[in-house]
Amino acid sequence: MGVFEKIIIQGDEVLELIPQRAPIVMIDKVYQSTESSTVTGLLIKDDNIFCKNGLFQESGIVENIAQSAAARIGYFCKMSNTIPPIGFIGAVKNLKIFFLPASGSELVTEITVMHEVMECNIISGKVSCNGQQVAECEMKVFIQK
Question: According to the model, what pLDDT value does residue 28 have?
């Protein structure tokens, strides 16, 4: 993943893209979004619901990837002035967690759409922190129309 300096959406505007609300919001900025990919960021805070003993847990990493996928759809809904749909994780495949990042770290997550079939998006997700890969997986996300 490259270095992303320009933030296109951050703060409360992120909530317009995803259905989650505090304390389950696991992205706080969007760096880019195209038809086929989206890059998001998350500053891991000490009080994050998925932090334990100062480390961001596996479940939080998976949720971060899923919300990055939701942000892609939400971004295009926002551009077309429509309400973003609700999505559900249908499956996680080939999940690899290389390390648990510490609170205070910044995650950069890139999702790439591999396939879109009716209401199912199959995405590839990669998470990095300080240039090191944190995790990767494939995920099926079902969209409620």
Answer: 98
